[in-house]
What does this fold into?
Amino acid sequence: MDISVNIKNLKGTQMAAKITGTFTVSNNTFPFTAIAFGRIGGHNIGAKISKSTEKALSKLGYDVNQIIDELQKSLIQGNITLPEGLDKESFVDD
It folds into this structure.
């Protein structure tokens, strides 16, 4: 499954940050929010999508849990597009 993730806004630090953005799957774009935690015990990201997005994904034949897993994996691994002026190194450890 190919998901592209576009970050719209990031507030916080390397310890904890709130992320808003969109993800695209099969030429369909959906919004998401996420909370990212780092350092203690490693990186962890909890992504959330709305009920209407869940319904739309299900209607397209996708497993919602699999989509959220892929979204979170992309966020953790830094496979994302950032807005101009936001530096990935400011919140992602490689």
Summary: The chain is about 25% helix and 35% strand. The longest strand covers residues 16-25. Strands lie at 4-12, 16-25, 28-37, 44-48. The mean pLDDT is 87.
